[in-house]
Amino acid sequence: MDQPLLELRGVSRSFAEGDGTVTVLRDVDLAIRAGEMVAIVGPSGSGKSTLMNLLGCLDQPTDGSYRIAGEDTRTLDNDALARLRREHFGFIFQRYHLLGDLTAADNVAMPSVYAGTPSAAREARSHALLTRLGLAHRLDYRPSQLSGGQQQRVSIARALMNGGQVILADEPTGALDSASGDEVLDTLQSLNDAGHTVIIVTHDMHVASRARRIVEIADGRIKADRRVGDEPKALAPDASPALTDSSSGTVWLRVIEAARMAGIAMRTHKMRTFLTMLGIVIGIASVVSVVALGEGSRQRILKDISAIGTNTIEIYPGNGFGDMRASAIQTLTTRDADALSGQPFVASVSPGVSTSLTVRYRNISATATISGVSERFADVRGLSLAAGRWFSSDAVTRRAQEIVIDDNTRKTFFGSADQALGKILVIGNVPCRVVGVTIKKQTTFGSNDSLNVWTPYTTAMTRMLGQNYLKSITVRVADNVSTGAAQSAIENLLKRRHGRTDFYVNNMDTIRQTIESTTATMTLLISMIAVISLVVGGIGVMNIMLVSVAERTREIGVRMAVGARRGDILMQFLLEAALVCLTGGIGGVLLAWVSSVAFAQMVSGFSMVFSTASIVGALLCSSAIGLLFGYLPARNAAHMKPVDALARE
Ligand code: ADP
Ligand code: MG
Predict the structure, then answer these.
(1) Are residues 241 and 271 in the same domain?
(2) Residues 61 and 145 occupy one common structural domain
(3) According to its UniProt record, which protein family does this protein belong to (predicted)?
């Protein structure tokens, strides 16, 4: 006759145990032809299950060869073995091994997911199979809602899902009462009649007597092999649906299925998933907030600057910000200012001095910053008035004892802005009339409660300070001149006048650049800290995924038994980790947004600007964390040996 379907030759299987090895199967020769119904019997511990696992390609022999339809399984890689299990074998286990989170119909359909059958066809076939096995009314029941006999029928349907040319049943009746057991045996017998090759492992001679051939095994050796029924009919098994394994189209189906499984896993462990996500939520929320805050303050400062105008140049004594000796330098004078205002590239010049003095009104006194400025200062700095006016150029020439006060000063001494107008404040010991009150200024960070008073620089220099040098000169460059060119012309002019460089020059454009680079650096730094929290969150995800893989080892075994490739298992757990993190990322973005709204209500001047790029970036980042930290656990899962995974309880 033609070649056997399954053929073991000289097969041994030993396991490492302690220091040595135990040999469970020794030199087994066994040939099974298509259409046979074989019972493998023997006492408990004789190696029946080990033999069955070898036959089903869940395990591989230590020695000897195993050929399926003439092909040596030793030459096959993991995916090819998975394909054999998926397309040719159907397993029935003593303990059913159904997945508790799936309905009966979904359990039955699972093998065809890995074969890439479209979902409509999957559903139709799983319903048809369950109906054929008398479970039409239990399609949506979970395994825990079914009796043992019903569960075993579901598992028979699952074995048939992809065709089940060879049915491997390991003690299929072992956990059933005799009535249910007989039903299962009847079903197996009718499957054999229909052309399926059926191999039953049992320790029960009564069960074995239903087979047409009995192979007895003891101590890992075959003791007897006798035929008790008729020769097998050389029938092809029935309806083996055309199963395509063509990759491209089916990969997508498998991704969707893996995502669905990940969703189910997340739902079954809500609390755990939530806590795992929390790390990611907090990490993403802080990254997004920091970026939005940085962007908000940057935009705000830039808006302030553009109100001042970038064609403004400031001149200070000293050699840069924070120069300690600057206050001792007295060479910057009003004559410099006059010389500058005579230049063709200069639109206007505003000299400036400042000091702190005690301000008194009746019995109230407070310290204020007194700035001596020109009549153009309000324009140059974009200050608006709540009441009154700014002092005139005439007041500057006359050294008029006029002042403009800010909102803080107004609050300190007077009621409303209008009440302040015309009142006399004593600055140091100079009485000055209030001619204007500025509106409250929004500051970028927190509130500023310092008092500011402006007076003509001539008044400040002669009457209050008695100094003839300036603290700063602000130059507004003429419209048609470039700020850079004007800046070098100013530097040359002052150098000539002073004979050396004892001043430094800032233009608003450089300040803008400084602010931009400072906020960028700050954002980067704080983001690094936030990234650390994300990494911590990621480690949490990895930890939980390791737990999840350990908990679901049996599920992994079942999936592998029905033909999941390593890639499928890897994808399922990777997707689960990525989905947890992505959901966490979405939660984080929402949290950042909600907290920005809440802060904006409480703190004035608090602005956060969310950009699409930062949100998309955050979501990509969180998914990437999932993939990164989920990889190790997922790889562990994918690299399990099916037989080990199934054996784990
Ligand atoms: P049966 O199914 O006939 O009751 P098994 O094939 O399950 O027997 O096991 C046969 C023997 O092999 C037992 O003594 C068991 O302890 C041993 N065995 C099975 N699997 C392993 C393994 N993975 N590692 C070590 N020993 C094993
Ligand atoms: Mg066993």
Answers:
(1) no
(2) yes
(3) Belongs to the ABC transporter superfamily. Macrolide exporter (TC 3.A.1.122) family.
**How many domains, the chain?**
3
- 143 and 33, same structural domain? yes
Give exposure, 130-163, as e/b (b: 16+ Cβ within 10 Å). Answer: beebebeebbebbbeebebbbbbbbbbbbbbbbb
User: Do 264 and 182 lie in a common domain?
Assistant: no
For 341, the domain range is: 330-501
CA distances from 628 to 72, 535, 537, 542 (A): 38, 10, 12, 9
Structure tokens at 571: 């994808």
- Residue 322 forms part of a structural domain: no
DSSP string for residues in 578-612 = HHHHHHHHHHHHHHHHHHHHHHHHHSTT------H
The CATH number given to whatever domain includes residue 208 is 3.40.50.300
pLDDT mean by block of 10 residues, the chain; 649 residues: 85 91 93 93 93 94 92 90 91 92 94 88 94 93 94 95 93 91 93 93 90 93 86 53 49 84 87 89 88 82 70 83 75 87 86 90 91 83 84 91 92 88 91 91 59 92 88 84 86 89 82 79 82 87 92 93 92 92 94 88 76 89 92 94 86
Residue 310 placed within a domain: no
Residue 375, domain member (yes or no): yes
Structure tokens at 310: 């970038």
Of all protein residues, whose CA lies closest to atom 23 belonging to ligand 1?
15
458 shares its domain with 541:
no
Last-in-domain residue among 501, 523, 558: 501
Residue 126 domain flag: yes
Between β-strands 452-456 and 364-373, what pairing exists: parallel, antiparallel or unpaired? parallel
Domain-terminating residue out of 219, 245, 271:
245
**Is 410's C-beta closer than 6 angstroms to any atom of ligand 1?**
no
Cα–ligand 1 centroid distance for 95 (angstroms) = 17
Tokens, residue 88: 């040719």
Q: Smallest Cα–Cα separation from 617: which of 139, 233, 291, 136?
A: 291
Distance from C-alpha of 412 to C-alpha of 364, rounded to nearest angstrom: 8
Are residues 230 and 99 part of one domain? Answer: yes
Pocket test for ligand 1, best of 49, 217, 553 (most atoms within 8 A of CB): 49
* Ligand 1 pocket, residue 256 CB under 6 Å: no
Tokens of residue 143, six digits:
């395994």
- Looking at the CA of residue 647, tell me the nearest atom of ligand 1: 23
Q: Is 20 in the pocket of ligand 1 (CB under 6 A)?
A: no
Same domain for 204 and 272?
no
d(CA 168, CA 84): 13
Beta-carbon contacts of 439 under 8 Å, excluding residues fewer than 6 positions away, are: 384, 385, 386, 407
- Do 164 and 279 lie in one domain? The reply is no
- The pTM score is 0.74
